[in-house]
Amino acid sequence: MNTFFETNIQKKLREYVKNNFYHASHMQITPDQAHYICSILNNNKCKNILEIGTLYGYSALSFAINSPNDAKITCIEKDKSSLKVAEKFWSEANISHKIKIINGDAMNILNNIDEKYDLIFIDADKKNYINYFEKSLPLLEKNGLLVFDNVLWKGLVAQKSNNDRVTIEIRKFNEYIRKDKRIKTEIVSIGDGLAICKKILKS
């Protein structure tokens, strides 16, 4: 059951993607996931956010709507056509001033970023999750958070008999962050699973 109150524009975007890009509609975060991440943003007073993998802009829209007016959300997305859809709905919601778009390949772009972020949300190609993690961790503020989507992968990561390529990659990633002493990780079973990685401050 959906427990998250969506604004009309969020629901409109979600329905638009479902009706026009059904094959990709499952790639967006769910309303409950949006609600959970926005709670994290508010509880941790996150104002500078980086998103890796924006697609049609539902997550960025949700973050912007639920962030203060001086918040900044930088979105990295390589697909120009999906960004056009996102920009249309961001404009309609009057939150475009909060969003900066970087169009291109995230693996290359991350090499050239020297800014620090309060929260980095990653919802991109799963085979590069470990690489995204390593490139993103140095970009966090001292109390920063990394949030990864799809870490339960429809429950397949728990099925030992399932060994398709993506499932194997996500299992490897989950084990990788579990063992990493630089962060404290919590996996939350909302939507397709969120990994919340908090940077541990050195004494």
Question: Helix share of residues?
Answer: 25-40%
- Helix/strand structural class: alpha/beta
Could you tell me the number of beta strands? 7
Order of helices and strands: HHHEHEHEHEHEHEE
Largest sheet: 7 strands, mixed
Unreliable stretches (pLDDT < 50, length at least 5) are: none
Global outline: globular
Explained architecture:
- With 203 residues, the chain is α/β, with parallel strands linked by helices.
- The protein has a single domain, classed as 3-Layer(aba) Sandwich (Rossmann fold).
- Helices cover 38% and strands 22% of the residues.
- The protein contains eight helices and seven strands.
- It has helices at residues 8-20, 22-25, 31-43, 58-65, 80-92, 106-109, 129-136, 165-179; strands at residues 48-52, 72-77, 99-103, 117-122, 140-149, 183-188, 194-199.
- The chain has a seven-stranded mixed β-sheet, with helices on both faces.
- The longest helix is centred in the C-terminal third of the chain and has 15 residues, at 165-179.
Question: Briefly, what is this?
Answer:
The chain is α/β, with parallel strands linked by helices and 203 residues long. It contains 8 helices and 7 strands, in the order αααβαβαβαβαβαββ. It has one domain (8-199): Rossmann fold.
